């Protein structure tokens, strides 16, 4: 009897790379990692070929167009990958009876909420990246109602480009930096999210009843601004760099950013019995890896 296969798309991204690291801890599964080069998710023929060859029991979609500012001028490619690519994968999973986990974003919301966003809060993206990810969610649920969609926020890891690595570099190179203090949320350590998804997969392998389709929110516990995040990075690394708080209007970007991105994670914790680490503990772990 062959082992169940987990197909991971977008394997070169932050969450994909963390899943590569964790694969060895899940010997009951065979992992297949695909990238934009060997299986573009918006290429239906390539996806069907991969599914026919490997017959995955699970597919975790980490593939995405994530260049938030570039999406304002590259709308077609953003919607092709984040919208149509998600639909193609959702359909392939439905046809093959593959359980599908898709990663989405806090950017489906407008950032005007006074309280942490629950899964049923009204969506209203304020940039094209958010609109493309929302389209992916809608197409996913229409095409494959058995899918699990996990919205996350402020993702960082020891892999790829992210806020933590950028700040560490700037703090080495400059005596002072400015960071916005009026955008609030909670960061997500990609290793924690990857662990949570594999816990969902492993528990549903034990009992089919543990697979509970629908929308979920995942980020680390806590509530901070980007400025608070930068200050914590400064403290943990022991940097002498001065971190100055500034309002968002002093740091204009092509894409508007939501001023409030905090996600309510109680549903995923209760449904799947997952414990989510506090943001600062995870940040310390990531920085330790980066400093080694």
What is the β-strand count? 12
Name the beta content range.
15-25%
| Mean model confidence by pLDDT | 96
What is the element string, with H for helices and E for strands? EHEHEHEHEEHEEEHEEHEHH
Low-confidence stretches: none
Find the CATH superfamily.
Answer: NAD(P)-binding Rossmann-like Domain
Strand order of the largest sheet: 2-1-3-4-5-10
Query: DSSP helix count?
Result: 9
The amount of helix comes to: 40-55%
Q: Please tell me the CATH architecture by its name.
A: 3-Layer(aba) Sandwich
Counting copies of identical and different chains, the oligomeric state is single chain
Instruction: Return the structural class.
Output: alpha/beta
Question: Measured on Cα atoms, how large is the radius of gyration?
Answer: 19 Å
Question: Can you give keywords for this protein?
Answer:
alpha/beta; 16% strand; six-stranded parallel sheet; 292 residues; two-stranded parallel ribbon; 12 strands; Rossmann fold
Task: Give the SSE layout.
Layout: E1 5-9, H1 14-23, E2 30-33, H2 44-54, E3 58-61, H3 75-96, E4 99-105, H4 128-143, E5 148-152, E6 155-156, H5 163-173, E7 176-180, E8 184-185, E9 188-189, H6 190-206, E10 214-218, E11 224-225, H7 226-237, E12 242-246, H8 266-272, H9 279-291
Parallel strand pairs: 1-2, 1-3, 3-4, 4-5, 5-10, 6-9, 7-12
Antiparallel strand pairs: 8-11
Helix pairs in contact: 1-6, 2-3, 3-4, 5-7, 7-9
If you had to describe this structure to a student in words, what would you say it looks like?
The protein has 292 residues and is α/β, with parallel strands linked by helices. It has a single domain, classed as 3-Layer(aba) Sandwich (Rossmann fold), CATH 3.40.50.720. It is 41% helix and 16% strand. The protein is built from 9 helices and 12 strands. It has helices at 14-23, 44-54, 75-96, 128-143, 163-173, 190-206, 226-237, 266-272, 279-291; strands spanning 5-9, 30-33, 58-61, 99-105, 148-152, 155-156, 176-180, 184-185, 188-189, 214-218, 224-225, 242-246. The strands form 4 sheets. The chain has a 6-stranded parallel beta sheet with strand order 2-1-3-4-5-10, with helices on both faces. Strands 6-9 form a two-stranded parallel ribbon. Helix 1 (14-23) packs across helix 6 (190-206) and helix 5 (163-173) packs across helix 7. The protein is globular, with a radius of gyration of 19 Å.
């Amino acid at each position: 009897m062959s082992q169940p296969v987990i197909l991971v798309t977008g394997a070169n991204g932050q969450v994909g790379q963390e899943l590569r690291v964790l694969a060895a801890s899940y010997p009951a599964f065979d992992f297949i990692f695909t990238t934009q080069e060997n299986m573009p998710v918006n290429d239906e023929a390539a996806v069907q070929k991969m599914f026919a060859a490997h017959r995955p029991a699970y597919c975790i979609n980490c593939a995405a167009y994530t260049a938030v500012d570039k999406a304002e001028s590259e709308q077609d490619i953003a919607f092709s990958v984040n919208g149509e690519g998600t639909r193609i994968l959702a359909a392939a999973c439905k046809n093959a009876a593959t359980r599908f986990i898709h990663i989405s974003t806090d950017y489906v919301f407008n950032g005007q909420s006074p309280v942490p966003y629950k899964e049923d809060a009204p969506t209203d993206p304020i940039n094209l990246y958010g609109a493309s990810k929302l389209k992916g969610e809608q197409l996913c649920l229409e095409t494959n109602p058995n899918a699990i969609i996990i919205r996350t926020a402020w993702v960082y890891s020891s892999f790829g480009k992210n806020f933590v690595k950028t700040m560490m570099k700037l703090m080495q190179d400059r005596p002072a930096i400015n960071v916005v203090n009026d955008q609030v949320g909670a960061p997500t350590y990609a290793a924690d999210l990857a662990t949570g998804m594999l816990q969902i997969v492993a528990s549903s392998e034990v009992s089919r009843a543990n697979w509970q389709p629908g929308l979920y929110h995942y980020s680390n516990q806590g509530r901070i601004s980007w400025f608070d995040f930068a200050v914590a990075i400064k403290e943990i690394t022991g940097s002498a760099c001065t971190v100055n708080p500034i309002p968002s209007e002093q740091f204009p970007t092509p894409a508007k950013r939501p001023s409030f991105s905090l996600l309510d994670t109680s549903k995923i914790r209760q449904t799947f019995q997952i414990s989510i680490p506090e943001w600062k503990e995870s940040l310390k772990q990531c920085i330790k890896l980066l400093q080694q």
